[in-house]
Design brief:
Blueprint (H helix, E strand, L loop, with lengths): L3 E4 L1 H8 L10 E6 L29 E3 L3 E5 L2 E5 L3 E2 L4 E11 L5 E15 L2 E2 L11 E3 L2
Antiparallel strand pairs: 1-8, 2-3, 2-7, 4-5, 5-10, 6-9, 7-8
């Protein structure tokens, strides 16, 4: 099964309200063992079902860096650096990208399709383009 991502509904509304600045705000990614309380309707970071007791993982996740905002035609898109939990051995099912600077407001949920276990757990960001970037807006 392929990886599926979706922007949270609250994030979409907050873009129009001018809440988020992905270039200057502090963004984090947290890992989860399941989807209970985590999905498109997630409004803020939650510790429910977050990875615990695994080597190299700290509650609330790690900072996400390297945000770039780009445009192509009528599409705006955002890319980030890969997210790596160095010196880790983690099993996770999904992740939440959230904005720590704005009261831990959610941005997007990433579904890995199944449990993933790896040393130096890494989320490789998609190619930085208008058709593949993690966050895309059009129309």
């Amino acid at each position: 099964m392929s990886i599926i991502q979706t922007q949270t509904t609250s994030f979409k509304a907050e873009l129009y309200q001018g809440v988020h600045n992905l270039l200057t705000d502090t963004l984090y990614m947290a890992l989860y063992t399941g989807f209970a309380n985590l999905g498109p309707d997630t409004t803020v970071y939650t510790s429910a079902n977050e990875v615990t007791g695994q080597s190299g993982y700290t509650a609330a996740g790690i900072q996400v860096t390297g945000a770039t905002v780009n445009t192509s035609g009528y599409i705006a898109y955002v890319n980030f650096n890969n997210v790596v939990w160095a010196n880790s051995n983690i099993t996770a099912r999904c992740a939440l990208l959230y904005n720590q600077s704005k009261g831990n407001k959610s941005i997007c949920v990433i579904d890995f399709g199944s449990n993933k276990t790896m040393v130096n757990f890494t989320i490789t960001m998609p190619v930085n383009s208008s058709t593949t970037a993690l966050i895309r807006s059009s129309n």
